[in-house]
Structure formats: structure tokens, C-alpha cells
What does this fold into?
Amino acid sequence: MAEPPLLALAGIRYHLGDQTILDGVDLGVAPGERLCLVGRNGAGKSTLLRILAGAPIFDDGTRFVQPGATVATLPQEPDFSGHATVADYVASALSDALGPDDWRVASLLAEVKLDGGRNPAELSGGEARRTALARALVGEPDVLLLDEPTNHLDLPTIEWLEEKLSGWKGAYVMVSHDRRFLANLARAVLWLDRGIVRRLDRGYAEFDEWSNAILEREATERHKLDRLIERETEWAGKSIRARRTRNEGRLRALGELRKQRRQQIGPVGKATIEVGPAEQSGSLAITARNISKRWGERTVVGDFSTRIFRRDRVGLIGPNGAGKTTLLRMLIGELEPDTGSVKLGANLVPVVIDQRRAALDPDKTPWETLADRNDHLSVRGRPMHVMSYLREYLFRDEQARQPVRTLSGGERNRLLLAKALAAPSNLLVLDEPTNDLDADTLDLLQEALSDYDGTVLLVSHDRDFLDRLVTSTIALEGDGTAIEYAGGYSDYLAQRGPRPAATAEPAARKDRPAAPKEAAAPPKQRLGYKRERALVELPKKIEALQAEMAAINEALADAGLYARDPKAFQAKSNRLAAAQAEIDAAETEWLELEMLREELQG
It folds into this structure.
């Protein structure tokens, strides 16, 4: 016999203006259950969690909590007001707390590596998330409600949280965009779709197949209903005058069919994420040679080298504070290294998406964010109406004129992507782009980035997203070591192996993971005069070709050139293509010589 629920909702209805968010939701959470709540951005997942937590915001229905059962919540944005220290905030979850020095508080803060005496107002995003997690976990509640628990957490902390929840004795309901996290922990799925919650009593790995089958069945039923309405409408047009009285019942039935069809809301459309066409550039995007950076006495990045080519997708991973952003800024030329050099490829046009969403003004509307006061903006090289573009990213018409601060976290992230990806570029720099995005939008973003003709640099803690997208992974271990591995996160784990206890590993070449040296390096060898000379001359040749291409592009920008001299126009166009091919060949030759030189020198 199934155990009675610790927490239950019955007939919950919630409206936001004229929009139905929750339409008669029924669900229960039994002891020890491990549930994930999934659905589109804006579907109402956070609202449903708030109602489960006890917020009296619903319009109709009932909430039941078993007497004596305890419920704790991890909100997306914790409120630290009224708490002088981190320990005070964590201890506030305990009704019987002995103050901030309670052993339970101290023990959990040690697990999440936080100083209980710190002012919570001064915490970084990751530290604030760990503090809120400590507060949710400290009382060992019967039911945990977790809203995006992995946001702002680094990979080591996510893995710690997975281990903690794997051994958790109570029940939990979690909302997360992290598929690997859900697949590892959830034993049943609650799917919030168009105001209704459906339940799958299997793991998250089977959710896609199950939900797709439901949507296909609904599409078939809608098609049948549409055909029935067509037949009944045709009958009504032909027969109503002759048999008005006898057929009033059939007309009423037709009206009911139409009402039923209006109420059948189809599945919400998918966002359309496309990246602007990449500007023409050389085959070699970024070359970093023995770069290092120190902050005070601490080495953040030490002696790192890499070559990043056009169409490479490079992921950066590591603990918070390990130096991912520092390395990223050095690679794109925003920050000078203390030692070594960074060379950017020809005609590099970067677009940077910052996880802090600094590009969004909370008081502006989405319309103003994209086009200021204009009606059109340039999208992927062509003019487009603002509203049409917003609809591609699943914004409703009324949201276009509402302040950005009223949007959900996922909607704000979609708006940031829409703003950044409209512009042409050949280098995309993405710092935690997956935060708050639903699974369908993540799929579309991954597909768009895979098809992108430029280069992608990506900082992410989303293991599944990394495995699906990146061609190599730069791992920063927090001790100044940065090593590049072929493949995604799973490949990194497989290649890393046991780390040396006391020594840092040298930076690895892209095609060969670093390994501890087992013997003394052989004597250095030389390339020979001709090759050494080529290493010096090729960069000069590339710069000369780039200058020539710039002059040709300036000449071709003359709108009247073709009309005045079609042959000259064609000759310059042909020379432009040939010069680009020569640059590509020279960069490839230089790269091969440089790799050979390093090979010979060990």
C-alpha cells in the first residue's frame, strides 16, 4: 500500500492577468520520493514550487502538509536581509538552533567551504548559492524544494551536492536545467505543460520519449477534431434553413466542439535560435604562447599555451575562483598576460555574453533592449521587425512592452541571447549561457552553436551541454594549472587520470593530453635555417596579405565601382578570395612549423 503524501496539492489554479498558469493541478510528495519538476521557461515551475512551500498565492484549490512534516526551500534568489552573518542566515532555518555556533551550522558550512562570520551581502553568486543550500539542508527537512540548485555552482560543488542528495533520507522536488544532474538523481518526473501537471514514474532519461509520445497523440486528436468540425460546419451551412428545429441539437453540439477546440491549447512553440553569419576570418583564431597571470602572490594561470582554430568549440571548466574568466579575458585580448603572448586571428569579430546579464537594463523593455525606439533591427544581416524577432525567442506580444525586471530568469537569458546573437560575428564568448534555460531551448542553443561557422569559447558547469558541444576542454584546477584535453567533460574525466600530488602539470597540446614526465627531457634540437627563417617571415607575409585585403575591401565598398569598371570589380573580388586562401595556407604552414619546433625542443 502506498504511503500517504507528506505534501499534497489538489485543484490548484493560478492566473496571471488573463493567462492561466496552473489549471487544476493535483500532485503529492510521498516520503523519500525524488522528483524533478520540468517544463518550459515561464510555464510556472517556480510559482508551483512557491505554492508547495506554502505561499498563499493560488486562486483556488487546497494545499495539505502532514502534521509534523518539515518543508525547506531553496529559492532562485535568496533574501539575506536581516542577517548579519552567513552563520546567522543558515541558523535561521533551525527552530531549536543554539545560534550561529550550532554544531549543525558549523558542520554544513565546512562542507560548502564557507566562513560563517562573513557578511552575506558581500558574497559572490556561487557563495550565495552555497549559503542558501546550507540553510535548506541544515535542518534535514522531510521535504526539500530546490529551485535551480546548480545555478552559479562550480563542478566540484555540483558533484558534492549530487552525492549529498543521493544519500538524502527525505523527499525532494527539484527544478533544474542540468540534465546530467536530473538523470543522476530523479526517480520520477512531474511535467508542467500548459497549466497541467503529468507524472512519469520513471527516471528523467525516459522523459523525452514519453513526453514526445503524448504530444504526438494530442496532435493526432486535434487533427481528428478539426476534421469533425469541418464536416459539421459544412453540414450546418447546407441544412440549417431547411431543418432548423430538428437540428438545433446538432448545432449546439457543433458549438461545443468549437469551444472544446478553442480550449485545447497546443504545445507552446519552440524558440528559434540562430547565430548571425560569421565574418570572414583566418583559419587560426587565437594563439596563446606560455601565458601566465598572477594576482598578488597567487598564480592564477601559469605557462599555458594553445591554438584555437576557426570552428573550434572550446569549453573552460574549473572551481569558482580557479581563473576561468581571467584566462578567457586573456585569450580574447581583454587582459594582458604577465608573461607570454596572445595573437588574435585576422578580422576577428567577437560577441561576448556575460553571465551577470550586465547588458540588460531592468527598467527597459525587451523592445527597447533590442531596438531602442526603432521598429526594426538588423538580425543576421537583414532587417527584421522587433516583434517578429521576439516571437522567435518565445516572447508574448504583451511582454515586449513590459520592464525586463518582470521577466523570469530563463526569459532574461533568452533576451540576452537574442540581443547578442543578432549581430554578425566570428567569435562567440559565452559565460554560463545555460543558466535558467529549459531543456528544449538548450537543445536549440547547442544546435545553433554546432552549426556556427565561427569559433566558440564557453565557460559552463553543465556537463551534458559540454559533452554535446565542445571539441576540447581547458581544465583549470585552482592551483595555476590549466590543461587542455580533447573532447568534452566526460573525455576530460577519462583522460585526466590521477593527478600528481605536489607538482603542476604542463599545459597540453590540443591533440595530446598532458601526462606527467617520467624521464629527463632529451637535448633540444633545431628546425634548421630555412624553417627557422620561415617562422620569422610567415607572420610578416600574413600581415601584408591582411593589409592588402583591407585595401581591397575598402575599394569594393565603393557602390559605383561595378558600374564604372566591371572588370576591375571582378579582378579585385578574385584577388580578395586568393589573398584569403594565401593567408589560410600561410597560417597552416606556420602552425605546422611551430608544432614541429616544440616537438623537437620537447
Observations:
- Residues 238-246, 261-266, 500-524 have pLDDT under 50 and may be disordered.
- Residues 10 and 26 are 4 Å apart (CA to CA).
- Residues 210-263 form one domain.
- The longest strand covers residues 284-295.
